[in-house]
Specification:
Elements (H helix, E strand, L loop, with lengths): L1 H16 L14 E12 L3 E4 L4 H11 L8 E3 L6 E6 L8 E6 L2 E6 L2 H12 L16 E11 L5 E7 L7 H13 L4 E8 L2 E2 L8 H4 L3 E2 L16 E2 L4 H13 L3 E8 L4 H6 L27 H17 L4 E5 L6 H5 L1 H10 L3 H19 L3 E5 L14 E4 L3 H9 L3 E4 L2 H4 L20 H5 L17 E8 L10 H6 L2 H10 L7 H19 L9 E5 L4 E5 L6 E6 L13 E3 L6 E7 L3 E2 L13 E2 L3 E5 L7 H5 L5 E3 L9 E10 L3 E4 L14 E7 L4 E6 L5 E3 L5 E8 L9 E3 L2 E3 L1
Parallel strand pairs: 2-3, 2-4, 4-6, 8-9, 8-18, 9-13, 13-14, 14-15, 15-16, 16-17, 17-18
Antiparallel strand pairs: 1-7, 5-6, 5-7, 9-10, 11-12, 19-20, 20-22, 21-23, 23-24, 25-35, 26-28, 27-34, 28-33, 29-32, 29-35, 30-31, 30-33
Helix pairs in contact: 2-3, 4-6, 8-11
Length: 732
Amino acid sequence: MRKTLFALMILAAASSAAAAQTYAGLVPRPLKVMPGEGGVVMEKGLRICVSDGLESEGAWLCKHLENVFDFDMVLSDIPVPGGVSMRLVDGMESEAYRLTVSDAQVIIEASDPAGIFYGVQTFLQMMPPEVYGQRDMELTRWELDAVTVEDAPRYGYRGVMLDVSRTFYDADHVLRLLDWMAYHKLNRFHWHLADDNGWRIEIRKYPELTEKGAWRGDGEVSPAAYGQGHGRYGGYYTQKEIRQVVEYAAERHIEIIPEIDLPGHSRSLIGVMPEMACPVDVPYISVNGETDNVLCVAREENYRILRDIFKEIASLFPSEYIHIGGDEVDHTPWNNCPHCQALARELGLEGPQEIHSHFVYRVEDIIHGLGKKMAGWDEIVISDARYDTSSMVYAWRSVESGRMSVDKGYRTVVQIGEYCYLDMKQSRAERGHSWAGIVPLSKTYSLEPDEILVGAPADSSLIVGVQAGLWGELLAWPPRLMEYQLFPRLCALAEVGWSSKADRDFADFERRLYGGHFSRLYNMGIAFRVAPPEVLYDSLSGSLRVRPPHPSAVVRYAVDGAPTASSPVCRGEVVTDAPERMLFATFFGDGLSSIAVGASNIDLYHYIDPEMTVESNFPLLEGNLESLARRGGTGYSDRVLQEGDVLTYRMASPVECSRITVSSGAPSSGMFYVTDAYVEYTTADGSVVRAGDLYHGELSFEPSAPVTQVRIVMTDSNDGYTAVFHGLRIEK
Ligand code: TNX
């Protein structure tokens, strides 16, 4: 009895929330949605009929429907009236489908299983969002509004690139990502398997690549990186795991394109086989802050090793493409290597760009020899080199670099930083890179790949699709940042890749997110980013005006600290005489919330800027000590830090203040922070107080008496080639 009542209550809640038609909130937006008359009731005895070859799609549908119904589905291969039928028909484009809800039945038709699979995804979005969840919902019936959806993707390539070298994600994690991609009709997973900071794929012929090259930290072949500490950090996939992931992806109609990043970004490889680098001892630091990461182009043995490696990779991945990287190569070693220079003279290669192209030609040959096609980052086409036209270029640096690739006749994947790099910050205050700018949801949504064609007579069919890129330098913390960076921006990119150009409308997209898609993500178990409210102080009325990111969003507030799930809910405005002490955040479901924000038009902190000088017993770049004496100033160490290094901020006279914040890290990304140090301060009476250890490069403390100096005392090395210090932030 109680169970029935519970089911009825849920049904009532679900149907009132979904006053809109069951097909109203689809993401990505389909090509054509044609409302029909009436609807279909799904209830006990529901049959799922699949024709030959669609067993996996049928099983996927049953598995999800069973999350919400209190009865089991009947899966059969005999078509009967009623229920849900899936069938292959002739004449539709690849991946296209038709979903018809009418006459007491649901029909999904397509010309290939992928199309059926996407029809199933659309169908699932017409169900309550719990269809994605592990929670049992126990519905006894669900009513679908009649509709016909005719749909087909704009691009054949709709991808996600994940860097597992800088931050490692185990195979289970990757499987979850593949599910999330499938729900969004994404069909390519570009797996960035090797970079400077870790080699992640088992190669039977060279077991040391993962025995040693997959690990970093003190005493490992790769040094500590990205704040992950001096302990051993890393991991890798066995070939068995790789095969499982490939198969799992294929069941979801996702092709996996493996990448080994060469000839730069090769520090983990060179750590294991130092002979693969040029035999010269010249210092250099790549744009990523790495040394010893470029392969020698003249060493014949290198190509034999690379062939062995790619041979195993080619047999593990059915994809026709293998991605060989090719980005961000520091030319210093080649310019100084007698062998590379001799090779250049012998072959008439002009300058390092042509040496680079020569390397790529050689690797392209290897890839072709293994029956595969080559893919690479857009630097491979900077020179006049002509690779095979089957080679595919991933445009990442700019719209112009995409144009260059298309102009030269290459199939091109659009992964342009300023739209597609989901490792960029979503707003100024959030964690992330910013070299390609701040990338809010609206920016990703605004990507128009055809912009690449502007001013060029190039063939538009060369733009094969779009891809989100998630680089791992900054993903190690806080927990689940990967999901936060991907969602909902990946939903936007899925729509860019799938939906027609004419139908793209950001306001409508946001409406669908808030109107249902966030609930789907929530039920998928994704810790997606929740947008904070906008808060403005109105001094006339003495109130804080709060605009939630969407009328339906729940905003809470707190005084002197971030709001929690039990803080009071804010409706519109809050009257207060202490506006600078109040923080607001948006909450979603049970456990998700936005960053906490205060009013953007008042100073939340009352800083004071006392006169001081800064000293250090280790070298900093020129002029940096002066800069560090100011709030907002930065100072770069001229070497890696070591135990016993001290930076001292000395006040001209004792400073009375409520709080001092010591912080570190590059202003644009937060990388190169001080990993191991404590802070102590001296008070006017000469006593020295230990304020605490830096945590992720920061410490904020409330001094017990007026302060005459603050010292950062290093207890170990940091994990980059430099460490970046900041001027103190001192509050009144
Ligand atoms: C550039 S995109 C890189 C990566 C970094 C990324 C950070 C590309 C081919 N190279 O090595 O991780 O920027 O956003």
